[in-house]
Amino acid sequence: MKNRLFLLSIFVLSLCFQGVAQPARQLVQVIVSPDKADWTYEKGQQAEFTITVLRDNVPMEGIDVRYRVGPEKMDAWDEGTVKLKKGIATVKTKPFNDAGFLQCHASVGVDGKTYSSYATAGFSPDQIEPTTTLPSDFEQFWEDAKGALAKVPMKPVITLLPERCTDKVDVFHVSIDNLKGKIYGILCKPKAEGEYPAILHVPGAGVRPYYGDVWGAEQGIITFQIGIHGIPVNLDQGVYDNLRTGPLDSYQTANLDDKDNYYFKRVYLGCVRAVDFIESLDSFNGQDIAVTGGSQGGALSIITAALDSRVNYLAAIYPALSDLTGYLHGRAGGWPHMFLNDFTNKPEKIETSKYYDVVNFARFVKVPGWYTWGYNDNVCPPTSMHAAYNVITAPKELHLFPETQHWTFPEQQQQKNDWLFERLLK
What we know:
Rossmann fold, 2 domains, nine-stranded mixed sheet
């Protein structure tokens, strides 16, 4: 029991590292709310934002609220101050004539400290079109890459981690050969004899150890959680800290000027190799694989499903790497915001990005998908995510939680698990 509680605590901590933990409450609460319950308007409409300021849950009176209104991640259209009356102030925007998102930021100064918040209104988000374009040789590029990967023997090394096992689940550290390096991960398998469906967990951004999805395996699912950096995922935290601030700092743009050697090429192929490994397991049922992740992992979920026909389902939480060229067209682009400044705005880098943009993989998704994000996400702006979602022609479900930023409510995670388990444990 103690071991299982330890593993559960580690799993919760890992979610926090992936940006799903909610922010802590502050003494003074600034609450910004659009005047539509679903935060969604039609193009050409005006939004009215209500700003509420509370201290000790009591409305504050007579203080100035500074506000700023403009498209997400862009310069403000309008800014100024309004005075609180019974804890409330309102800001009405001018009409928003494009499909996209408009943010209202509000802040107050209390006892020498600034408190702030914001809300984001969507305008016909289902009409948002991508700014990136599909290279004519996109499909051939990735077919050739997968062909090169197929020639690399997998050479799996599977090492039992007894200290992480439970009475129902065996846990292993896994190494498999990838194109140019290795993929490492944590495999969790039900101990009971049988054949099981599988979930591939693909990671959010960063450099960290992993602990595997023991809980999912206890439900009767093989789970395989991978890292992307070609290093073991069970080392001391200090190893990852040194890599994060050293060789792997800014890995997101490494070799961006060369589509054949861009950092994410071996990452995307590593996800395909992870599917190869799942398929090789005797305990896999041979027919049911889902892929899931958040942020960078949300992107990798869509990409893996597009690249590998053996994937049956995907669940993507706020997918990054979507419509990266948005900033070149006067609107927000996806994480890692590589085209936000002139340093990266070079023709060869822009061209390379098209081969790695989630939008262009989304065009080829053929399996059912469950998707979720919030309008307030400034890490993966909703404009960029809708640009990818809107080109998907496969069966899809979008579960919006407008208030969320780059985190999720427990209810979102529960909905995701319910959706996956309903299909995998049928």
